[in-house]
Write a structure and sequence with these properties.
This protein is of the alpha+beta class. It has one domain: Carbon-nitrogen hydrolase (Nitrilase/N-carbamoyl-D-aminoacid amidohydrolase, 4-Layer Sandwich), CATH 3.60.110. It contains five helices and twelve strands. The protein has helices spanning 11-23, 70-73, 102-109, 126-151, 213-220, and strands spanning 27-36, 39-47, 53-58, 83-86, 89-93, 115-120, 123-124, 154-159, 161-164, 178-181, 185-187, 193-196. The strands form three sheets. Strands 4-5-6-8-11-12 form a six-stranded mixed sheet, covered by helices on one side. The model has no long low-confidence stretch (mean pLDDT 93).
Length: 241
């Protein structure tokens, strides 16, 4: 059975806080948040190494895709993009479908985030994998490596593995299930993949992050400095006709 939505803060975040404090780690957890009766969010919580809840991020971009149908369940986030001070640095988190949008990465980085995390559940449909699987994975990794380069930050992407069956709303294609492609990775501010997990099994992925290097990187690749913020107003339009 699927897990029910939970309040934030609540018993689930209290337990996660105990774990973070016990292990002395900064913990990012994705939760099915129950904000009110019938109002739910896909939410990431940021818990510091002392067990304190630093804040929450509610997923901003909500997809509608076979075997997901998130628009049926989730209300779009209303807190904007967020970065949080933690004992290991200033960290931002977005969620899954957010990873395709450079605006979200940029607005989080502009708040001082040094590392961007993307908790994710993405995979291949069986009918598409042979023809499009490699290209889809490459596109997914490439755009997030680009976030690291364009913003002078580290990007950490956590994706699930395994096969999930199900027939959703009579969708025949969805009835064949979904193969989550794993491939979690960590990219440095040059977009280099410095750690990557496998596609077919659960793993603990470890990579080194040198926050002191960001000063030199951003000085030599001053993308944030050279932005023409006076010329970007039209980006708030859906289309420019």
């Amino acid at each position: 059975m699927p897990l029910p939505p939970v309040p934030i803060p609540g018993p689930t975040t209290a337990r996660l806080s105990e774990v973070a404090k016990q292990l002395r780690i900064v913990l990012i957890a994705s939760l099915f948040e129950r904000r009110a009766a019938g109002v739910y969010h896909n939410t990431a919580v940021m818990i510091d190494a002392d067990g304190s809840l630093r804040g929450i991020y509610r997923k901003m971009h909500i997809p509608d895709d076979p075997l997901y149908y998130e628009k049926f369940y989730f209300t779009p986030g209303d807190l904007g993009f967020k970065a949080f001070d933690t004992q290991v640095g200033r960290v931002g988190t977005l969620v899954c479908w957010d990873q395709w949008y450079p605006e979200g990465a940029r607005l989080t980085a502009l708040q001082g985030a040094q590392v961007l995390f993307y908790p994710t559940a993405i995979g291949w449909h069986p009918d598409e994998k042979e023809h499009f699987g490699e290209a889809q994975f490459d596109a997914w990794q490439t755009i997030q490596r680009a976030h690291a380069i364009a913003n002078g930050v580290y990007v950490a992407v956590v994706n699930r593995v395994g096969f999930e069956e199900g027939d959703v709303r009579g969708n025949k294609a969805a009835g064949k299930g979904l193969e989550f492609w794993g491939g979690s990775f960590l990219a440095d501010p040059f977009g280099r993949v410095i750690a990557q997990a496998s596609h077919d099994k659960e793993e603990i992925l470890v990579g080194d992050v040198d926050l002191r290097a960001l000063e030199d990187i951003r000085r030599n690749w001053p993308f944030l400095r050279d932005r023409r913020i006076d010329a970007y107003a039209p980006i708030t339009s859906r289309l420019i006709d």
